[in-house]
Design brief:
Blueprint: E1 4-9, E2 18-22, E3 27-33, E4 36-41, E5 55-57, E6 61-63, E7 70-72, E8 78-80, E9 89-95, E10 98-102, H1 108-113
Antiparallel strand pairs: 1-10, 2-3, 3-4, 4-9, 5-6, 6-7, 7-8, 9-10
The structure holds FE2/S2 (inorganic) cluster.
FE2/S2 (inorganic) cluster binds at residues 44, 46-47, 49, 64, 66-67, 69, 82-83.
């Protein structure tokens, strides 16, 4: 199954930035990591912080703004205490200047990491 939703226009998110995007199912965090776009759940798995209020650090990690836990953006893997539960990722689809996510599929990096 496939549930494709529009996220953002490419030029609206510079490299190194993260932005919250509401969808009909849940809020997503959308990232531009050196020109590659990724999407994860916006809610930290440790508590209820919005990861889009955090910062991209060390290239491709998102640091949670509340307790400084970290996740690997491409795979959603929890990387730093107190985060121990991986983050849900979503497959990103790029069509010209427009960035979409498939809410029914995880990212290719997460899928191939299993
Ligand atoms: Fe994110 Fe605690 S809410 S690390």
């Amino acid at each position: 199954m496939s549930k494709k939703v529009f996220l953002i226009r490419r030029e609206a998110l510079e490299p190194g930035q993260v932005r919250k995007v509401e969808t009909e199912r849940c809020p997503l965090a959308v990232y531009n990591v050196d020109g590659t776009f990724y999407a994860t759940s916006d809610i930290c798995t440790h508590a209820t912080a919005s990861l889009s209020d955090g910062e991209i650090v060390d290239g491709d990690l998102i640091a949670c703004p509340l307790h400084d836990g970290q996740f690997h953006i491409p795979t959603g893997q929890a990387m730093a205490f107190p985060c121990t539960v991986d983050l849900r990722t979503y497959r990103v689809i790029e069509e010209g200047d427009e960035i979409f996510a498939d809410l029914d599929e995880e990212s290719e990096a997460a899928a191939s990491a299993i």
